[in-house]
Amino acid sequence: MNISTRVVGALVGFVIALLFIFLNWKLVLLIIGLSLLGYLVGMYIEAGQQVKAKLRELFSLFFE
Questions:
Q1: What is the number of other CB atoms lying within 10 angstroms of the CB of residue 42?
Q2: 64-to-25, 57, 58 alpha-carbon distances in Å
Q3: Percent of the chain beyond pLDDT 70?
Q4: Rounded Cα gap, residues 30 and 52, in angstroms
Q5: What is the pLDDT of residue 4?
Q6: How distant, in Å, are the alpha carbons of 13, 36, 50, 53 from that of 4?
Q7: Rounded to two decimals, what is the model's pTM?
Q8: Most exposed among 14, 23, 56, 64, judged by the fewest C-beta atoms under 10 Å?
């Protein structure tokens, strides 16, 4: 059984809505922010050298 991305998005939205209802909105935003940060760190570690090279190129454009 394949689960479509729309179903996953709807479930994530439902869970976030429940969190907003039952928890403080600041806590929900903190949870979402930390989850996003963890996802980005995981992508960075998984990608390895390609991401490092792109980040070096990006920073060299800003700080040259």
A1: 10
A2: 41, 10, 10
A3: 97
A4: 27
A5: 81
A6: 14, 21, 29, 33
A7: 0.54
A8: 64
